[in-house]
Amino acid sequence: MDKINGRAIFIVLVAGIAFFAASCVWAAMPEFHGFAEFAYVPKGSDDNTKRDDFNLLEQRLQLKTKYLFDGNSFLAQKNSSLNFKGDFTVDEYFSGKTDFELREFNLSTTPYDWLDLKAGRQILTWGTGDYLFVNDLFPKDYVSFFIGRDDEYLKKPSDALKMSFYPSWTNVDFVVSKFEPNTIPEGDRLSFFDSFQGGIAGRNSDRDLLEPPLQPSNLEYALRTYRNLGSHELAFYYFRGFDKNPTSYKDEAARQLFYPRLDVYGTSLRGPTLGGIGNVEFGYYNSREDSGGNNRLIANSLFKVLTGYEKDLGNDLKIGLQYLYEQTLDYGNYKANLLPTDFVFDESRHLLTQRITKLYKNQTVAVSLFNFYSPSNKDGYVRPTVSYNITDQWKATLGANLLWGEDDLTEFGQMKQNKNVFVRLRYSF
Amino acid sequence: MKMVKLLGIVLFIGLFVIQPMSFAQDSPKPEEIIAKSRLAFYYAADDMKAKISMELIDKDGRKRIREMTMLRKDDQDGEQQKYFIYFHQPADVKDMTFMVYKYPDKDADRWLFIPAIDLVKRIAANDKFSSFVGSDFTYEDVSGRNPNEDTHTFLRKDKLDGKDCFVVESTPKQPSEYAKRVSWIDTANFLPLKEEFYDKQNELYRRFEVGETKEVDGIPTITKRVVKNLKSGHRTEVSFTEIKYNLGIEDDIFSERYLRRLPVQWIK
Asked: ipTM value of the model?
């Protein structure tokens, strides 16, 4: 019954939007683009999440439009536009729950030759990694990623003001944003390692995640300055805000976790290397509330180094390799302050990734294999996908999320009961 | 007297008319023809804007559309070039932008901006023969090939749709996707009117043909072209419209700034 209600609402919504879109076109309003998508993600293992047989059963309608200011107005003269992108969903996982996600709604303008502004809800990305992030501290939705939604949904929107400065010798992006946490498994849809439950948990997890309250002192700042050096791109990064994951404990008895204050300093270099594209990125994470590493409840500082290489082997075959090293700093202090009952996390982590993509049939069929493997954590994640652009409008995607690990508390190992297969059918317009 | 006059005329014709003609026919420098052709086709004017529409048609007649606006700017004829491409169609790539810095003697630099995830991706570009957006055009077809990479031989003069052409055979010095290319180049404006590509078995597998040529701002311009893969039966028909030359496109348009933020003064 719930499902039928959900579908009915969806159909009404679609019809309403179609009518709205049509009337907008009639009124010479900006045109709408987007897609309608159906996604089904059955899963293999039975865990303690809300549903045993699937991770996702969802219909989605994405609409986007852009309004370019014209005429003689101030905004028109400053090359301004209003950008909108929103997703309507009917989620059968939660019994046909309808939802609307505003992904973008911002004003973009160029007040001066050397300044661009983008204010409002927007997707923000920088850095050089492929599915791995060192200096990109903008919010991510890992749940969407692991339950088989399109890659687009790994990036979560931010409510932000982005200022881009272009003096002659460099480019500077400066972002002020409201804190937005990563969306991470919480047990209802994906099982994960919950230290309060002492192992992999599903609906039995009852953690309380405390977000920093919205106030001026809790705004986040992200800075990037970059320029080209010949064919290479050099960038420096600075971030001042909060850890996007609830890595630290506020009150153990109340099962409260929080997002500790974090500063990140980093740099990256990317460019032609050995007949391909090479990149290296470094980030130093300063855990401001526990910079000495003596507080067992708060995550320590750490550093991350990422190197990558991508090469085109010809005949529409590409390979990409990455190596990420993470080291917890002040590990001695961390260990010295642990209680006997605490779980012990390793000092360092090595992670290797490999991507192979091959295109067939005039690039209408893409076969790809992305593989994460950590020899230190003894865990990994295999993500094969095949997609087919049946026509310019219709696209079918088939893939799988195969997570494995020897231990329950490692990044991928804790997700091992969430193996699934995803099928998506999309109509773009 | 008459005989002397006649002899004089004959001698005159022989010396100054026939000989230069036969000279032109026997040994026009093929390297020069190819170099001039490259400039006429890939380096026309100092910059250019055009709307490009590609129809990708498979052997069963199924069509796919790629529609884009291209900006091109040359540093100098025959030297470095910058390209900026905005995709209008199909819907799943709409609003993506693509930028290329092309160098005559090394791999191009390529960037792709994917607006849905705000990502500027660097594209590995060492394979010049991979297909451009799934069409029958390779990246090299789109941005040109350095004439020094081939050995050129003048084959003959020919007529194509009433136009006089030089026919030149080009053989790659290094192993390449093709073993031999034969080009028909318009003697009047050096535009390549037809090109045929042969594989290692000396079989013809790919053919370019010009469908329409126009004068735009006084510059002879190919506005319609077809490339056909003779082995798969797949073909791509491309047409250039809204062509404009020498617009004074600023150099800084070709930067990450405008990849992320469309230069609305040039592309709406």
From this structure: 0.91
